[in-house]
Amino acid sequence: MDRIASSQRLKSAIWLAVAAIVLSATTLCAQTPPPPIMLGTAWYPEQWPESRWDADLALMQQAGIYMVRVGEFAWSRMEPSEGHYDLDWLDRAVTAAAKHGIYSVIGTPTAAPPAWLTQKYPETLRVDEEGHRAEHGNRQQFNFANPKYRELARKIAEQLALRFGHSPSVLGWQIDNEYSDISFDSDTKTQFQQWLKARYGTLDNLNARWTTSYWSETIFDWDQIPIQTRDGNPGLLLSWKRFVSDTWRSYQKNQLEVIRAHSDAKQFITTNTMGWFDGFDHYVVEKDLDLAAWDDYVGQGHLDPVKNGFAHDLTRGFKGKNFWIMETQPGSVNWAPINNSLDRGEVRAMAWHAIGHGADVVSYWQWRSALNGQEQYHGTLLGADGTPVPLYAEAQQIGQEFAKAGPVLAGTSVKSEVAILHSYDSRWAIDWQRHNKNYDPAAELISYYGPLRAISQSVDVVEPLTPLSQYKLVVAPGLNVLSDAVAKNLVEYVRQGGHLVLGQRSGMKDEDNGLQPQRQPGPLADLLGGRVEQYYALVDPVALEGKFGVGQSKLWAELLSVKAPDTEVLERYGKSNGWLDGKPAAITRKIGKGRITYIGAWLDGAAMTAAAKWMAEVSNVKPALGTVPDGVEVYPRYGNRGTVYILVNLSKTEQTVSLPFAMNDVLEGGSKLSIRLPIYGVAVLSGER
Ligand code: GLA
User: Fold this and answer.
1) Residue of 41, 179, 295, 339 to mutate, ligand 1, most atoms within 8 A of C-beta
2) Ligand 1 centroid from CA 273, angstroms
3) What is the enclosing helix (H) or strand (E) of 405?
4) Using alpha carbons only, what angle is made at residue 533 by residues 527 and 536, rounded to the nearest 5 degrees?
5) In this model, does residue 17 exceed pLDDT 70?
């Protein structure tokens, strides 16, 4: 009897002890999963006394913030001397956040090496193009190709993974921060030469593909190959960029492998990229990641929905799924020529613009400025005194709206009938040889993207090797470098019934940035039944006339010819340099159910709008929602439970949008047939036709 009683007492004591442990570990995070649409912020607990953390986290919680990004740049705190790691403080910060229902993303701190590291191993400091070695006191001073740096970076990433790889409130990982600065030291040059050897196999092959008989550029030994970033042999320039892309990929993989090895499969691994930045081929670097994320800054001025929207769609295209805004500006930045603030309401409009393009998280950089350090003037949600700035209330409104709309948006993503092909090779190739100094390859992409998005209300931006059969219309502005594999993908797409539109400068170069031995569009000329006879850089615009109305071509004009009886001329040049006068500027050819079009002019705004309308019409592309007033942006997100339309008014006046059918107003409530949007107004609507 006694034995039974004492064993029962023991059992209940054990139960109580277990319950106590479970209770003490119970946090709000453990009770609620992360919301589907989430507001976040960059938080640097190492910059503040621990006694302050709880107040910060409470204010975040009140703003509806569910995610903090912590750890990036804190290497000197995590490893104050070589091999001595201190992650207890970060553990306490992550635990404190979880108590407030705030999840964490851990950043590896490798964009900011500690002073002891670079002092002891100076070879880990990068060397710029002029031969200067970086020094301590800023960030990104490391050499991305240096083996010692990689060894130390891997160790700190491993320590972090061992500590946080199974923490339930850690959602994932951000490796490093905004890969950008590269090194030109002699060891990196040797790595480049070895990389070329692996790629080209023999010097004969390299010499042939780079046509080095030109200017006595023949390479006799691998170690004669220099690093060049401009004015060099086009084959060399493109190879260097490809080497840089592969080197960033292996730099990232070095950390990624140890994180994967020690973390829960549920934790994602990402890095934060920079939208239009083209320092490396993002399609290469993103291959190994689970999630794409970017840092969305306006800088000076105001939200440009076309330029910014393209960057969202580009980032979404890296993984072909929803992405994160890892950083965005709470009002203003500190690095633009004029650091104006976004208007009242504009930060909210920008957040919804991001969600509309497929972001699931919008995270502000940063929560509160460090009292000292280089970024004291940057926008924040708290002032130096630790209390909210005026924008905090707007963030809070966004937080509340995300909470309301989250359940409706859960599981939804963007789907488009139109794709724009984007290639870093082509952007670089045009940029190195603009031929007209004002010819900006990014502007060429935008000139198509803007009107096509306005008409279809949704565009994917994808790399040229992507399977294309899901699209009704595929547009390739400036697809300058055209490999055989891409040409094959495009021919198949047209033969299967798609409509391919090629823009200026397409199909001119081969995989090594050499000229195609055929005229543009090179391997696609036969399919087109026409070609570019000659290109002309323009000082003055050239008049245009035809299916896209009367207009002008600026910067550049390509004289097209028709070779097949069924290739039609869409547009012709007016009087110009004599060569172009009356000659075709745009041609098209039906191929079975498919079609291929070539536009050799840089169409002005009105002509491009007409061209986009024509492209949509012949390809049967319809607007996702219907016609809306100019300046009102429509963003559809599709899910199993129906479609959600986000509307944002970025025009300068209040707008009323009539809806094609009665829809639920998710933020305001009620069923609506029309919706009134003040300036920067937002609506989230759900419902089916
Ligand atoms: C970048 C960095 C951040 C911060 C912001 C400021 O995006 O990743 O650490 O410096 O700029 O705008």
Assistant:
1) 295
2) 11
3) helix 391-409
4) 125
5) no
Burial of 219 (0-12, 13-18, 19+ CB in 10 A): buried
Please check whether residue 289 is in contact with residue 269, taking contact to mean a CB–CB distance below 8 angstroms.
yes
pLDDT in tens, 257-314: 999 999 999 999 999 999 999 999 999 999 999 999 999 999 999 999 999 999 999 9
In CATH terms, 632-686 corresponds, of 3.10.129.10, 2.40.128.20, 2.60.40.1180, 3.30.365.10, to: 2.60.40.1180
Q: What is the reported pTM?
A: 0.96
Tokens 């002092």 map to which residue?
Answer: 119
Nearest residue to 348 via CA among 294, 383, 400, 420: 400
Side-chain-side CA neighbours of 612 within 13 Å: the count stands at: 27
Strand duo 293-296 + 551-562: pairing:
unpaired
Rounded Cα–Cα distance for residues 169 and 437 (Å): 51
**CB-based contacts of 41, cutoff 8 Å, min separation 6:** 60, 65, 67, 68, 69, 363, 364, 365, 366, 367, 381
Question: Domain 30-182+246-409 adopts which CATH fold?
Answer: TIM Barrel (3.20.20)
Phi first, then psi, for residue 462 (nearest 5°) are -135, 165
In this model, does residue 25 exceed pLDDT 60? no
Q: What one-character DSSP code corresponds to residue 469?
A: T
Q: Is 442:387 a contact under the CB 8 Å cutoff?
A: no
- Residue carrying the six token digits 């087109």: 528
Kindly give the residue spans of alpha helices, DSSP state H, lying in 325-366: 346-356
Contacts of 254 (CB under 8 A, 6+ apart): 150, 153, 154, 157
CA of 327 to the centre of ligand 1 (A): 7
Compute the chain's Rg from CA coordinates. 28
**Ligand 1, CB within 6 Å, residue ranges:** 177-178, 295, 297, 327, 333, 335, 365, 375, 378
Distance CA(19)–CA(510), nearest Å, equals: 67
Active site residues: 178, 327
Closest CA relative to residue 427, chosen from 485, 480, 503: 480
CATH domain 418-619 topology: Rossmann fold (3.40.50)
Residue-level pLDDT at 689: 77
* Res 63 pLDDT > 60: yes
